[in-house]
Amino acid sequence: MKHKVLLADDNESELSALKELFEAEGYEVDTAENGLFAREMVKEKEYDLIVTDLVMPVSDGIQFLYSIGDRGRAIPVIVLTGYNRLDNMLNAYQMGAVDILYKPYDVSQLLELCAKVLKK
Prior knowledge:
By secondary structure, the protein is an alpha/beta fold. The chain contains 5 helices and 5 strands. This is Response regulator receiver domain-containing protein.
């Protein structure tokens, strides 16, 4: 059975590259260009893992994490961000993120982290 992953990032080229990478690893992947679209997708479908950017237009990663926090089923979330700020990190962890990777990140590190999270 394939793990279902939702990727949310406003950078179209990065989102496309991540989608290809995750699909090559055998994941079933959906994508969203912002937190609002991602929130709607979570309402419609069950995911095993979410990988989201923190800073996005319309609805950012923190707002997205907050909106899915009361869904009853905890979905592990890995946050990707280019902003190494303590308040962002604390907010992400308080909203339920299992880990944060700072851009530019090592792709193999991201895949290893995803595999580790999904094993739990």
